[in-house]
TrEMBL record:
The keyword Membrane applies. It comes from Boletus edulis BED1. Keywords: Membrane, Transmembrane, Transmembrane helix. The lineage of its organism: Eukaryota, Fungi, Dikarya, Basidiomycota, Agaricomycotina. This is Uncharacterized protein. The chain crosses the membrane at residues 141-163, 169-193, 269-289.
Length: 413
């Protein structure tokens, strides 16, 4: 059982290992006998196959390959002016969407019918960030906490030496070396945020990130929006030789896994207890570090260091229909037809009639008679049920317009 214990806790160990590039100077604090060596070896090997950007003097690796998480995939993006559609954005867009969903709870709740409430966050991005940045944060408490597993691993080694249990001592030492060297290798890479620079003369980059219950309206220059929809985090190694060290670290963890699994039964009972003690304390530290929520840390880096705290305004509308109308009112597009059809693909005759009226009204949304009784009425050939549904959709649009008028008041403050 002592050897098998070294295989457990892989996810927490990987999470702790990948935090090395976020906290400054933590790459010096990996010298402890960490559990989960097999899982770390597997993830390191996979990261070698991840997408990256390379040139003659450097090599980059996508750090999200180490996490194996669907949370690294971002939502669909639709550009309001250029018509560009990105079916699946990257990790920065996923972080941005999560931050907006969590920000200010429901925001301003717009009165109206409620079926499936949709949160709408309007993000004014300001100036575009530099095309390449090196964000990082620091935490003195995190650095001090790392001394606990380090001291435990070194202390158990010393006790094994006093007890003259060389099997246990050597196996703990192998774990210390594997973890410490790997942290140094990963930490030697620069944690870089990059995004493509837009072509000169590009239109405004306004667009929307959409999910089932949340819509984020991005407003800003093409470069500012690109930083979210096309940006990426990467670990940049100074040379191909440094990059290839990841493969050797993977091999080192695999050796740790095999030797600990096969040789720990040869250790004395005291040595096995010391071995398990070092793993247990390290596992608790890894679990604590991984529970700090790396997504939240990365969101802080993206919002605070990269985007410099964009201005957010949030509304909650009771139906998706109202939410879509609200978005189109804020965007003020010359021709909202395509975006309306993409966001609300319904094509029954009731919806077609509603869309026809709405497109006309959206082009004259500054008119105080928006969807007044004189502009909408009973439609010939509609049943009572169909007319009732149409009137409900009109009410949703009126609720959205009331929310839009409130937004204009907020914006002018």
């Amino acid at each position: 059982m002592s050897g098998v214990a070294g295989l457990l806790g892989g996810d927490d160990a990987v999470s702790a290992m990948t935090a090395v590039h976020v906290y400054g100077n933590r790459h010096w604090l990996g010298w402890y006998n960490t559990p989960g060596s097999f899982q770390i070896a597997k993830r390191f090997r996979k990261s070698m196959q991840s997408r990256g950007i390379s040139n003659s003097s450097s090599k980059s690796v996508d750090p999200t390959a180490l996490w194996e998480s669907d949370s690294c995939k971002g939502p669909k993006f639709r550009a309001a002016h250029s018509g560009t559609v990105i079916e699946e954005t990257g990790y920065p867009a996923a972080l941005f969407m999560k931050e907006c969903a969590a920000w200010n709870s429901e925001g301003r709740v717009v009165p109206g019918r409620r079926t499936q409430p949709v949160g709408i966050t309007i993000a004014d991005l300001g100036q575009a960030p530099a095309s390449e940045m090196h964000p990082a944060c620091s935490s003195t408490f995190t650095l001090l906490a790392a001394s606990v597993p380090i001291a435990t691993s070194i202390g158990t080694c010393a006790l094994c030496a006093v007890w003259e249990d060389w099997y246990a001592l050597s196996l703990i030492l192998v774990g210390i070396i594997a973890s410490g060297v790997s942290c140094l290798v990963i930490g030697s890479a620069d944690f870089v945020f990059t995004h493509p620079e837009p072509a000169k003369g590009s239109p405004a980059g306004d667009g929307i990130l959409s999910a089932d219950k949340d819509i984020v309206l991005l407003r800003g220059t093409e470069g500012a929006v690109n930083s979210i929809t096309r940006g990426q985090f990467s670990l940049r190694f100074s040379s191909e030789a440094h990059y290839s060290l990841i493969q050797w670290c993977s091999l080192l963890f695999f050796i740790q896994c095999i030797t600990q699994l096969l040789l720990i039964p040869q250790a004395s009972l005291f040595g096995q207890v010391m071995f398990l003690t070092s793993l247990g304390v390290s596992a608790l530290y890894n679990a604590w570090l991984s529970s700090s929520d790396k997504d939240k840390i990365h969101r802080k880096l993206l919002f605070g260091r990269v985007l410099e705290n964009p201005t957010l305004t949030k509304y909650t509308l009771g139906t998706r229909t109202a939410a879509v109308v609200f978005v189109l009112l804020v965007l003020q597009l010359q021709d909202p037809t395509k975006l309306l059809d993409e966001l609300l693909p319904n094509d029954t005759k009731v919806w077609k009639q509603w869309k026809t009226v709405m497109l006309e009204q959206l082009r004259n949304c500054r008119d105080n008679s928006f969807l007044s009784e004189s502009k909408v009425g009973d439609v010939d050939g509609f049943t009572q049920q169909e007319q009732g549904l149409l009137n409900l959709l009109y009410d949703d649009a009126r609720a959205a317009y009331n929310g839009y008028k409130d937004y204009l008041g907020v914006e002018s403050l």
